[in-house]
């Protein structure tokens, strides 16, 4: 089992102290549902712990502000504010790119965040697009009960105390399926939205997203 390396509190719950990070967090709090908002922030906190466990250093190996933007905005396509009629991952990536461009980030950094968000449901691909993309998926996976032996129960409890789960599996599945039902073009063949829509049609009470969350270390 990997050794447990835990970031100190309050550093554990810290977000980048930049105007952009504050604006993004405020936007997500105002526009996303509480379960999705909490999940998005937890994904960033878990992504940082993944990076710490791998011996990666913020500012040297990856840019924490870009990781924050990617994690906290990775499900923004499920909000009305960012719903453009494409699959939610692409809508979210496009929205994030526009926001970061307005804030003056260079195209190369904007593209990193775009890829991390657009590919966050594409394991096996996103990991090949750089550390920010890889860590974004890793944080999301840990939040849904993926490998987390390096995270102590105390650390996990503190994160969940501040950002409770609020049945994230059900909330996320419902948001994706609701969009897909309203706009079939948001669920192209073989995509994650199409898969969840098909599963809900077969069994209205559960999807693989919900099953994954319930079976994971943290539960729903």
As for the CATH topology of the domain at 16-166, it is Hypothetical protein af1432
Radius of gyration: 16 Å
Oligomer: single chain
Largest sheet: none
Walk me through the topology:
Layout: H1 19-31, H2 34-53, H3 64-72, H4 88-102, H5 107-118, H6 131-143, H7 153-162, H8 168-182, H9 192-202, H10 208-215
Characterization of the model:
This protein has 220 residues and is mostly helical. It has a domain at 16-166: Orthogonal Bundle (Hypothetical protein af1432), CATH 1.10.3210. The protein has 10 helices and no strands. The protein has helices at 19-31, 34-53, 64-72, 88-102, 107-118, 131-143, 153-162, 168-182, 192-202, 208-215. Helix 3 (64-72) crosses helix 6 and helix 8 packs antiparallel against helix 10. The radius of gyration is 16 Å and the shape is globular.
Annotation keywords:
10 helices; globular; Hypothetical protein af1432; 0% strand; single chain; mainly alpha; disordered N terminus
Short description:
The protein is mostly helical and 220 residues long.
